Inverse folding.
């Protein structure tokens, strides 16, 4: 079963913007779910980009502060990552992540990943 579906990646020029979307199934999305975005650059480990709680508390990796914004739409169980002023170093596969509790058990879920390529 697919719990997280991402969209919005693609090719963008340096300095450009792109908005990633992640729709979570209602089974796993609640106010207590922590939604996040990670990325994996080829040849490197997956790294945290940003997280958002149901209380709208957000965290960001230092390398995206001031450029990326994470947000949630509880009505539509969606999470977004607005990425501005993109740099070639931002080229990566971006993954949506959900950290939640189901039936009293902590669970985490990953999306399939959406590639973002920053190049002129």
């Amino acid at each position: 079963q697919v719990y997280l579906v991402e969209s919005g990646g693609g090719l963008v020029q340096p300095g450009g913007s792109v908005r990633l979307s992640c729709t979570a199934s209602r089974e796993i999305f609640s106010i207590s779910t922590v939604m996040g975005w990670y990325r994996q650059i080829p040849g490197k480990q997956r790294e945290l980009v940003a997280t958002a709680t149901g209380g709208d508390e957000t965290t960001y990796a230092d390398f995206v502060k001031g450029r990326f914004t994470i947000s949630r739409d509880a009505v539509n169980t969606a999470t977004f990552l607005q990425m501005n002023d993109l740099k070639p170093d931002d080229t990566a596969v971006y993954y949506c992540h959900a950290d939640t509790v189901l039936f009293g058990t902590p669970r985490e879920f990953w999306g399939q990943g959406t590639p973002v390529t920053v190049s002129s």
About this structure: The first strand starts at residue 4 and ends at 7.
